[in-house]
């Protein structure tokens, strides 16, 4: 039987997926949304509760000191001292103003803010939350390389001091991992956000890795939310998430897989270029890719165009570097990188790891396996759920790892991502990279004041990383979000910080 062209194969696959999608969604969602949208709060003038299908379940019990913090932010339940505008500049949130004097920043707190348990926002609250984050292990990514202390300055202000003068302190404090929670959230080494935030929705129930329930908080300082509440279900299966939108099992669906986008009504999906790069990380410490010449051979073997047109069906942008079109200034400042010459792999054996939570990544790994085999490598794959593979990836147990990585998720500034992933002491250094030129460039970028000079320093640091071939940038993703026709005001945030706001509701 002749092999079908790849485009035809995708059409056949879509047809099969469409035929089984609704039943798959119903099975995985298990009726958890039953009655939520129809049984609108009698006090709501705008509509029913918002049913959300999210991609990844919590990894750390919704602790704000982990990546689970971004769920709390997207549900508008936990808030930070500052927030970011579209350009990454800091704006007021729980703090109304701030000023810098040397190594110290003074933040004035907003008056009239209460936590969901009724207790007031005070300087002591801020000191407690930020100190817990700074002392946690591992630290939140945004604090990589940052020695930060906090103390009350007056009845309405706090002083944040760093070991070195840091121009990015306001942006750092916008990270959801530095959310300010009530005293009740902190019990020993655990942080429990249930009923402890300040946002327009209070988290009233967290059912492990299956669901979460939030109700409107009527004492919110920013005004009354338009929706009476949010019902969240974690649906790692991308086919089921998309089907939940088609079958009216969910109102908002995050991270619709590329393979499913064509099956949905175009009016129901929004596609936004993201500051997220799909990268092949190469282990520089052990195995075949300890040799820079073999890393260069892997880089030359990769055909990113085939990944974009095949796996992503054109719904992505081929990478010219680690920083993509969501940061348009990067391409304008980027210059040529001096590369190590490639060597013949001569059958060197490598293992590529990746995870199933993002539906496209296993396909990316399979295509990379084919490309690297054609270049002369012997390639094996190890594909698991993210929660079962992260520890091995961080421990350097793979020769290569395919990862979809946000580049400005935490601070609006890519210097923090570059440090976390490529500094010798970075907390997410999957490549196990330790390079003095890279560390020097990263330190320079971190110390440079915000503005054009800092952007140039960031691009110089990017070039230093690329020169090592510790990472092969493949493509820049676009987020595809599904919203039912009766959803009003859902956020479409490329940084994945906002999803449901005070103005979001279901008609």
SSE blueprint and pairings:
Elements: H1 6-29, E1 50-54, H2 69-74, E2 82-84, E3 90-92, E4 95-101, E5 104-109, H3 123-135, E6 148-154, E7 157-162, H4 169-172, E8 186-187, E9 190-191, E10 201-207, E11 211-216, E12 229-234, H5 238-246, E13 252-253, H6 258-261, E14 269-282, H7 292-301, H8 304-311, E15 316-318, H9 328-333, E16 349-355, H10 360-374, E17 378-384, H11 390-394, E18 400-406, H12 414-422, H13 436-447, H14 452-468, E19 471-483, E20 487-488, E21 505-506
Parallel strand pairs: 1-12, 1-13, 16-17, 16-18
Antiparallel strand pairs: 2-3, 4-5, 5-7, 6-7, 8-9, 10-11, 11-12, 13-19, 14-18, 14-19, 15-19, 20-21
Describe this structure in words.
This protein has 507 residues and is an alpha+beta fold. The protein folds into three domains: 1-62 and 69-76 and 199-251 and 484-507, D-Maltodextrin-Binding Protein, domain 2; 78-183, Dipeptide-binding Protein, Domain 1 (Dipeptide-binding Protein, domain 1), CATH 3.90.76; 274-478, Dipeptide-binding Protein, Domain 3 (Dipeptide-binding Protein, domain 3), CATH 3.10.105.10. 28% of the residues lie in helices and 23% in strands. Strands 1, 10, 11, 12, 13, 14, 15, 16, 17, 18 and 19 form an eleven-stranded mixed sheet that branches. α12 runs antiparallel to α13 and α13 (436-447) runs antiparallel to α14 (452-468).
């Amino acid at each position: 039987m002749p092999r079908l062209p790849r485009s035809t194969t995708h059409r056949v696959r879509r047809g099969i997926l469409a035929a089984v999608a609704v039943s798959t969604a119903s099975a995985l969602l298990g009726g958890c949304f039953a009655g939520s949208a129809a049984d609108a709060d009698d006090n709501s003038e705008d509509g029913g509760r918002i049913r959300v299908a999210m991609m990844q379940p919590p990894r750390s019990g919704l602790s704000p000191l982990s990546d689970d913090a971004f769920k709390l932010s997207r549900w508008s339940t936990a808030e930070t001292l500052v927030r970011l505008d579209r350009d990454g500049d800091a704006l007021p949130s729980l703090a109304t103003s701030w000023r810098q004097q040397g190594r110290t920043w003074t933040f004035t707190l907003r008056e009239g803010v209460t936590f969901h348990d009724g207790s007031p926002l005070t300087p002591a609250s801020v000191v407690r939350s930020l100190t817990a984050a700074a002392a946690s292990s591992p630290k939140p990514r945004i604090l990589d390389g940052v020695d930060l202390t906090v103390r009350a300055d007056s009845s309405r202000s706090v002083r944040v001091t760093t070991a070195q003068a840091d121009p990015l302190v306001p942006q750092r404090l916008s990270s959801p991992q530095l959310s300010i929670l009530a005293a009740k959230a902190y019990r020993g080494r655990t942080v429990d956000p249930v009923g402890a935030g300040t946002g327009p929705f209070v988290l009233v129930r967290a059912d492990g890795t299956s669901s979460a329930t939030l109700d409107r908080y009527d004492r919110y300082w920013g005004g009354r939310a338009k929706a009476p509440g949010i019902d969240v279900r974690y649906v790692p299966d991308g086919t089921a998430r998309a089907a939940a939108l088609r079958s009216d099992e969910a109102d908002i669906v995050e991270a619709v897989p590329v393979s499913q986008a064509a099956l949905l009504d175009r009016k129901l999906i929004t596609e936004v270029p993201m500051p997220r790069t799909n990268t092949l990380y190469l282990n520089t410490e052990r195995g075949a890719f300890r040799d820079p010449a073999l890393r260069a051979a892997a880089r030359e073997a990769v055909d990113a165009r085939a990944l974009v047109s095949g796996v992503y069906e054109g719904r992505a942008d081929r990478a010219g570097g680690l920083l993509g079109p969501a940061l348009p200034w990067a391409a304008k400042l980027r210059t040529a990188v001096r590369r190590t010459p490639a060597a013949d792999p001569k059958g060197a054996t490598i293992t590529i790891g990746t995870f199933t939570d993002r539906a496209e990544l296993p396909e990316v790994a399979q295509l990379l396996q084919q490309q690297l085999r054609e270049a002369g490598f012997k390639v094996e794959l190890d594909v698991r759920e993210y929660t079962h593979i992260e520890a091995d990836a961080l421990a350097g147990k793979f020769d290569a790892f395919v990862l979809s990585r946000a580049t400005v998720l935490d601070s609006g500034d890519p210097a923090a991502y570059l440090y976390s992933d490529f500094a010798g002491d970075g907390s997410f250094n999957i490549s196990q990279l330790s390079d003095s030129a890279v560390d020097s460039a990263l330190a320079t970028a971190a110390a440079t004041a915000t503005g054009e000079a800092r952007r140039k320093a960031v691009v110089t640091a990017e070039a230093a990383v690329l020169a090592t071939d510790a990472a092969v940038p493949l493509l820049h993703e676009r987020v595809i979000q599904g919203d039912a026709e009766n959803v009003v005001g859902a956020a479409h945030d490329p940084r994945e910080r906002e999803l449901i706001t005070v103005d979001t509701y279901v008609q």
